[in-house]
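does this look right to u?? iron/sulfur cluster version
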Amino acid sequence: MVQDILTIDIQEDQDEDPPSTPRPALWADVPDEKWNDWRWQMANRLNSVEELAQLIHLTSEEIQGLRADGKFRVDITPYFASLIDPDDPNCPIRRQVIPLGRELHAFNGMMEDSLAEDKHSPVPGLVHRYPDRVLMLITTQCASYCRYCTRSRLVGNPAQTFSKVDFEAQLDYLRRTPQVRDVLLSGGDPLVLAPNVLEYILSSLRAIDHIEIIRIGSRVPVFLPQRITDDFADRLKRYAPVWMNIHTNHPKEITPELSRALEKLAFAGVPLGNQSVLLAGINDSVHIQRELVHKLVRNRVRPYYLYQCDLVKGAGHFRTTVAKGIEIIEGLRGHTSGYAVPTYVVDAPGGGGKIPVMPQYMISQGPGKVILRNYEGFITAYDEPADYDPHMIDNLDHQSLHRAEEGQGGVWGLLNGDEDTIRPEGFDALHQRNAEQHRLNFDGHKWERHHLNGNGSNSNGHHNNGHNGNGHNGNGHNSNNGDSH
Ligand SMILES: *Cc1c(COP(=O)(O)O)cnc(C)c1O
Ligand code: SF4
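got this back:
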């Protein structure tokens, strides 16, 4: 019996072609080897009303969007277009890539560069916002264009892309910036670059000793899975560890073609994550998100971030409230595998980076007790130790590597005693209100805190006593050595 089943399975494997997305009549005559060739897919992308009308029943608002002057670029690979429901104007695939007239409407808070990326770039295309990692934009081109794209200010324009001169300036910055240990390649989409250019960048990065990991953010596996050939996966192996974040928003994007591409990447040792954008009318539903994350983990992809839609031009009609994102996390955490739950983030308008937002699980706190609730609403008390010694670890702590954060210690820096306050720009001048120094007790030291034995209140108070060896305290107003008063 068991053997019969095995035999049948093997025969089925031999007889059937691997499953694939049905091809619309428009491309019925295209030979498989062309359809499966990423260069053919790129060369035959759809972008006009006339081309798209051959495939789908366009609504008048779509026609208006496609004909609008000054719109963000439209281009859709035949493969991705074949996933569109030709008769459903609300099709989630269609809504991501076909513009609507309302895309051109302005909205409150709208910006062109909402994350202030161009302001935080030491050299063009290199955004150095965090202490130890950088975003490296290496192309402005994508396989298809998402209507809500955060970088529509520079993406899509074929006349404006990054050149070898830019790459050299970016690499030069990285070579002389040893605190960078993680480089995130993005764009545009790094995987549409000519293969030799991409390899040039990967190998140049790999030649820099302090760069520990390379990450690629790419929507190519979704728009153009044909690009992920065995040969490509093999080449990526050479630059390991390379991590990749793909970008899916709806379970309909996870096709047999994408699954095969992901398998090739996973077998090449590329750890896979996914970034989604929360989009009104596309995936702002707990049920759709659950189906999406389940399909992702089945394909060895860990949901990484769920983004609140940015305040970017063109994206107004895709925006949801933040409450919707919190509700989605409420519907995932505890209800399904922890592996399947992304971190919901708002990318700070104005350029503060990603800010995680989640439901409130800590209900209250008192000396010795923390009151928590779980996803079911079960409420419990956690008894904290009365004799916890935060200094027990000090010896090991001093032996571990301390990385400089160059003025970016933030709230953790307060806990660590590097700083006593974080003040908005101009705070001191404002509160002095042009007054003279107070004539009584004329002593500038009276505002300095007394820190006995480190900073007194925390576990890591001795960090700065020369153990980190990297000039971390260069700002001159640190006083937590315990001997400064
Ligand atoms: C998102 C982002 C990163 C990477 O952030 P992680 O939270 O480490 O994934 C780095 N730099 C910039 C500018 C970013 O926007
Ligand atoms: S693939 Fe990424 S960079 Fe390209 S249009 Fe979509 S969101 Fe923008």
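The chain has four domains: 24-103, 118-356, 359-388, 389-437+444-485. idk if thats expected tbh
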